[in-house]
Amino acid sequence: GWQYTFPVQDKYDADGNPYYYYIVETACSDPDYWIDSYSGDNLNDAGTIVVTNKKEKTGGLTITKNVTVNGATVPSDKQDVADGTYTFTITGPDGYSSSGTIIVSNGVAQSTIVLTELKEGTYTIRETGSTNENGITLAPPQTVTVTAGKQAEANVVTFTNNLVTASLEIIKVEKGYKDSEHTLSGAKFQLVRVDANGNIVTGSGAYQSDIVAVDSSTGIITFTGLYPGSRYKLEEKEAPAGYILTETPWYISVDENGSSTLTAAYTMASAAENNNSFYIENEPGVALPSTGGSGTNRFYVIGFILIALAGMGMVMKRR
Predict the structure, then answer these.
(1) Bridge-partner residues for 64, per DSSP?
(2) How many other C-beta atoms can be found within 10 angstroms of the C-beta atom of residue 206?
(3) How do strand 277-282 and strand 269-271 relate by DSSP bridges?
(4) Residue 68, helix vs strand vs coil
(5) Fewer Cβ atoms within 10 A, N terminus or C terminus of the chain?
(6) pTM score, whole prediction
(7) Distance (Å, rounded) from C-alpha 179 to C-alpha 30?
(8) What is the pLDDT of residues 259-306, one digit of tens each?
(9) If we measure between CA atoms, which residue out of 172, 174, 151 comes closest to residue 60?
(10) Over 15-41, what HEC string results?
(11) Cβ atoms 85, 73 nearer than 8 A
């Protein structure tokens, strides 16, 4: 222990009244010890007072991270869709506050947040942000009790983030109809993820389907795995036989809740029974060649030949 002797002080004032001296401990040199009470609140006749400090018992906690896609393990071919840096804040007794981050790479947390020497009490942990760009949902706050002597490795709190993807249904129909009696087969589409400027997204969160055909019996094609908060471009790559190909693409915006909105300069599209399903029409006929293209040149050549032949016929008749 430690001992200190104070200089001799007067016991009585001039009128014979006793002085009372108080020893007040204001701090401990070792912060792991409590500032404790005394064995007495004033000096006794022997001039001795004992101050006892007891070591503070603390606990800890560990924060871990888990990510899923549609409630299941992250797909092996899309391991990076839930990647990002996830930020946490922790608050607790006596104004305690701290923060930390966990990095997820290829669907696996690369670290944990370990807090030690915490006072007993209830702590609130909040996930406050993420750098993930694929619309993953932040986990709700959690509370945990820290008990003295229960160390961090024995007091684990896991936050699970789930990425819920959306789907898009296209129903191919003849122009002027929006029912199952006038669906068309033979159309082929491709869907790609684009940014706000229409550029194809690459790397984490990229999405590019194969060129796929609508169902031959229902005229329906469904794209799955679309990310909330993202934008896609839908292109018709092949029209049904006897119908005109739609060359203008459609743009699909998926909001944070997975609901879709379809927009395009071309208006032959409309929502079906729900906001993730759209009718897309095709007009009967054969597409005309583009102005100034090779098809136009062929028509010019044929026209000149016909004019020339007609002129020759007129000359022969005059002869």
Answers:
(1) 158
(2) 13
(3) antiparallel
(4) strand
(5) C
(6) 0.63
(7) 79
(8) 766 664 333 444 444 457 888 889 998 755 554 444 444 444 455 555
(9) 151
(10) CCCECCCCCCCCCCCCCCECCCCECCC
(11) no
